[in-house]
Protein 1
Amino acid sequence: MSTFTAAPDLAGFAPPPFRPHPLLGDQHVQTMWGTVFPRPLAHAAGWRAVGRPWRLALPDGDVMTGRLHLHPDDPGRTRPTIVLLHGLEGTADAHYMRGVSVKAHALGWHSLRLNFRGCGEGEGLARRIYHGMTTEDVDAVVQALAADVAGPLALLGVSLGANKLLRLVAGYGASPPPALGAAVAISPPIDFILANEALGKGLNLVYDHYFLLKLRRKLAVIERLHAGDAAVAARTQAARRARRLREFDERFTAPMGGFRDVEDYYTRAGAGPILGEIRVPTFIVAAEDDPFIPFRMFREADATIRANPWITPIYTAKGGHVGFMEATRPPDGEPWMDAFWAENVSLLYLRQVFQDPGDH
């Protein structure tokens, strides 16, 4: 299986513009709508029928899990397989994960809804924690799937998962796995320092507290998996007293992840400085009004992004964080589309890449 030898010509890629729902124009409403209200998942019966558990044993003994959907019309797996990566404290069952997977099935493609270490069905199966730089886990998934498929792979990540895939693809440089054909990053926090600063302001403290509560819930599982380890016990106890996500990362994520301190973690985790190294067709979607991913980070990386022909960015004035909710599916759209614009255009991008007539 060969890969692209040059950036694909995407001159014909013209996705429909984002038309925010007239009643969901506020950045916070856009951000919370898709999380609070589950989508109907129209035409999902066939997708549900083919879903099956998926597990991958990692070299260190931890196990990652997910949900694999293989399209029955392609037993040879020659069509694209989309690997979906969730955000901070998400799971394979997040609404956006299910939504993209259903749409991929409608296109006749395969998909894997992946849980990061210790997330979803994988809770209790991983001693190590996931964080913004555990790209080796996603690489292990790519390598495992590449051995099973005849068609191309794509990575599609949301929020933390989006930044993680950008770091991974940039890390591959000029030698990505031959099976990896494209990547999509929706609302990626490419600068962790700016993102954390934003979380400490105004209404964003609601999101900060939300993430903190979900992370705290896992501490008991970590303690059980590391029973008898005094250092881990001290870190979990300190993390329980955290009042901000930054404090949690300082007391737990950074030391457990092998970082010098939280500043070291935040400085190194964001993908912004290394986007110029990407040599895989990559689509980035971000909103200027994202409440806790300040658009300043994309302005600062703009020269690098624009100079890299492998990256196609689309920025919208509105949309919030992973929101991009329209009133209805595009009137001139396709049957598989719904009102979640970013998901629709991401799959349009992937279809354009995989139909590219160039050398790949």
Protein 2
Amino acid sequence: MAAGSGLAVSGVFVASMIAALVEFGAFPPRFGSIMAAGQVASWRLKWVMIPVAIIVLWGGARIIRSIKATPGKFIGLRAARMGFAASVLVTVMIGTLIGVTIPERLRQRDLSIEAKWTARAYTFHRAQLEYRELHGTLPTEVKDLRTLPDSDGSIADALNFIDPNGYQAGSVLAAASTKSKPLVSRGSAIRNAAPGANATADHAGVSFTSYDLRLPGEDKILNTDDDFIVHDGVVTKVSDLPAGARPPNAP
């Protein structure tokens, strides 16, 4: 029983590794592909093999103690020990291969989250450009973008994750002087504007040409360090900014 259990656990793990190698097309296998196959097999079998291995180890240890206690009644101590050792080896390998890949998997998870929010930010920027092309100005409110044609639903999906309180639109105006002066950015926090207000009329014929958007991160809470800042299509994560350059967080 001890030898057979150890052989079965080892066989399942090796078979899973071979299946991963076949899936990768990694023949003839190299050291790197074998390690990768072992990691894939470990993650696939973790919820099955670890409980089974614990049971096998517990049962194997009891069997070995019984054989050693009454050697006149039992044979196969060496086989039982080999099966027990195989179970221990597979358990340690699965735990080790899972452990060494956790940092990389966490990094990939963070990259996937960042890519997801960046894609939404670029979709929002595309919608801004389309709105300005149609109306000659940027929208005063985020909800105005829902009037745009959206055949694939990407704009509506992006807007579902945007907090209107994080949006500000503004204008870049030339100074009224004959002297050469730099352009002055005059922004307006339009989230308090009346619904349906006309931006051009309210600002003496000046249309909105610039915007800032703060997207809540994975925690879905605005004004935290995992937020994303979008300024005229340039996406920056708040946590990546220097401490002195970060916008203030609000409760």
